[in-house]
Amino acid sequence: MKNRGDYMEYMGKILITIGIVLLILGAVILLGGKIGLGKLPGDIFVKKGNFTFFFPIVSSLIISLILTLILNLFKK
User: Fold this and answer.
1) Is this structure's pTM higher than 0.70?
2) Measured CA distances, 20 to 51, 65, 70, 71 (Å)
3) Quick check: helix, strand or coil at residue 52?
4) d(Cα 33, Cα 36) in Å, to the nearest integer?
5) What does the alpha-carbon distance between residue 60 and residue 35 come to, in Å, rounded to a whole number?
6) Are 39 and 57 in contact (CB under 8 A)?
7) Under a CB-based contact definition with an 8 Å cutoff, are residues 16 and 74 in contact?
8) What average pLDDT does the chain have?
9) What total number of domains does the chain contain?
């Protein structure tokens, strides 16, 4: 980077990108329960007495795929 202005522009773009990703992630979390994320076949849910274990494998894969596609759109 040649001068401080270039650095500030670069940091601004990074902060905007992080903000957009957080906005999308927040929307996915809010709307996820309504569209079935967390209750998909393949999500592991075990409840025995006081012990509860939940690991949303399939939901995590779907969210990862969506975020990868979105980030690849911004990359181009």
Assistant:
1) no
2) 37, 16, 10, 10
3) strand
4) 5
5) 14
6) no
7) no
8) 85
9) 1
